Amino acid sequence: MGPAAGGFKLDREGGERxxxxxxxxxxxxxxxxxxxxxxxxxxIDPLDTPLHVHRNEDELFYVLEGEHVFQxxxxxxxxxxxxxxxxxxxxxxAQRRVAPRVGRTLTMVxxxxxxxxxxxxxxxxxxxxxxxxxxxxxxxxxxxxxL
Length: 147
Hints:
Layout: E1 16-20, E2 23-29, E3 39-44, E4 49-54, E5 58-65, E6 68-72, E7 75-79, E8 84-87, E9 93-97, E10 104-110, H1 115-126, H2 132-141, E11 144-146
Antiparallel strand pairs: 1-2, 2-3, 3-10, 4-9, 4-11, 5-8, 5-10, 6-7, 6-9
Helix pairs in contact: 1-2
C-alpha cells in the first residue's frame, strides 16, 4: 500500500494484518491510502463489541460471513452475508455474533484514522502492555466512550 495521491491497489492477501484478543484484523484502507477519506478494516472472528459511541466517525458494517446483530440506538438489526448496517457518529451502537466469535465483516469508517485504534491495541498486546489503562487511553485518544 502507499499514499493515495495517484490511487492505490491492494491484492487479495494484502493489507496490514493485526491480532489482539485472539481475533484477526486486516487494515485494507487507511488514512494514508485514502488521503483521510475513509478506512476499511476486515474483522475476522472477533469478540462482540459492547455498547459504545464514536465522537468522530460514522461506521458502516458489511457482513461477509456469519450472522450478526447490530444495535444502533434503540434499533436492533440482524444481518447476514451480503447485508450491511450503518451506525452514525454520536449514536450508541454494539455488535454481537449469533454464534460467538464466528463471522467476518468489513467495517468502513469515515473519516479515516480509526484504524489506528486496532493498530495500537495490537501493538500493546504484542509488547505485553495491553491492560485496562492502555485500553482506556487508546479509547480516549480515538474518542470512544464505552457505555
